[in-house]
Write a structure and sequence with these properties.
By secondary structure, the protein is an alpha+beta fold. The chain has 1 helix and 4 strands, in the order E-E-E-E-H. A 4-stranded antiparallel beta sheet has the order 1-2-3-4, covered by helices on one side. Strand 3 (about 30-40) and strand 4 form a beta hairpin. The chain is globular and about 35 Å long.
Amino acid sequence: MNITDIRIRKKTNHGDLKAVVCLIIDGDYAMNDIHVIQNEERLYVQFPKWANGKSIFAPLNHQARQKIEDSILKVYRTV
């Protein structure tokens, strides 16, 4: 999996929601509506879910999640 682009839309006055992200994978797939959230402890990434709470997209292991989260937060901090 190669992350080929990350598009960040920062949000202000939205409480814990700090940004909405579009992640492009291998130049072929777009994952929209990823949220960057700030809680009392840290900044983290929340993947999109259906209304019933089930994941639309979710990494299958910790390493994949960490790669995606690290990449998104790196770009977020430079925008």
